[in-house]
Specification:
Distance between the termini: 87 Å
CATH architecture of the largest domain: 2-Layer Sandwich
Shape: elongated
Radius of gyration: 30 Å
Number of domains: 2
Oligomer: single chain
Number of helices: 3
Length: 143
């Protein structure tokens, strides 16, 4: 399968990219079939060979999410932008009451679980104390 993607060509700390057509299995810095444009994010410069991009898309090539978003910005193709990346979620585990990293549990699920446990404990304490507190409290209030 063919893919239109970015190939970095810039120096260290000076990113610059070629927009290339390559096989999906080819290495990112490896062989490519055709150069379709370039992109410099520092200078906000984009240039595309519009006719060639449209030709390869019509032939079944897929654009990577970042290139897809760039093509939409340049009005070469129409559609909605794709989410190009997502941050990693931190995972937590409990060891002797202290939260630590554990596979399968996120920070949110652990905080919800602990909040539910704390609420259940508080309700249990209140239910045990209510009969004593109600009787003593009502007598004192009435007097």
């Amino acid at each position: 399968m063919l893919v239109i993607r970015l190939q970095r060509v810039g120096k260290k700390n000076q990113p610059s990219y070629r927009i290339v057509l390559a096989e999906k299995t080819a290495p990112v810095k490896g062989k490519f079939i055709e150069i379709l444009g370039n992109y410099n994010p520092r200078l906000k410069m984009k240039s595309f060979k519009k006719e060639r991009v449209l030709y390869w898309l019509s032939q079944g090539a897929q654009a990577s999410p970042t290139v897809h978003n760039l093509l939409i910005d340049e009005k070469i193709i129409e559609g909605t932008k794709r989410k190009a990346w997502a941050p990693k979620k931190k995972e937590i585990k409990e060891v002797s009451g202290e939260p630590m990293v554990k596979p399968g549990k996120t920070e949110e699920s652990v905080s919800v679980e602990t909040a539910v446990e704390e609420q259940a404990e508080a309700e249990a304490k209140e239910s045990m104390e209510e009969p004593k507190g109600e009787e003593g409290g009502k007598k004192e209030e009435k007097e």
